[in-house]
Amino acid sequence: MNTLEKNYEWFLHANLKGYDDQWVVVVDKKVVASGNDINRILTEAKEKYPKAEPLLAKVSGKHTLVL
Length: 67
Fold this sequence. Notes:
The chain is of the alpha+beta class. The protein has one domain (3-66). 33% of the residues lie in helices and 30% in strands. The protein is built from 2 helices and 4 strands; from the N terminus they run αββαββ. It has helices at 3-13, 38-48; strands at residues 22-27, 30-35, 55-59, 64-66. Strands 2-1-3-4 form a 4-stranded antiparallel β-sheet, with helices on both faces. The mean pLDDT is 91.
């Protein structure tokens, strides 16, 4: 299982209360950036973790969209 798959698996079971209706970036099985501006949070995550392959996901109260 590669790193992106591990982060996705973690995301599926994570308690993400407090992130409703926000985008999150997951690196190493933790949320490293969140908000509504995708470009900003991806840039922030890439600056902090330049070698990582970040997982971007939308969290909502009813459905979750993973890209």
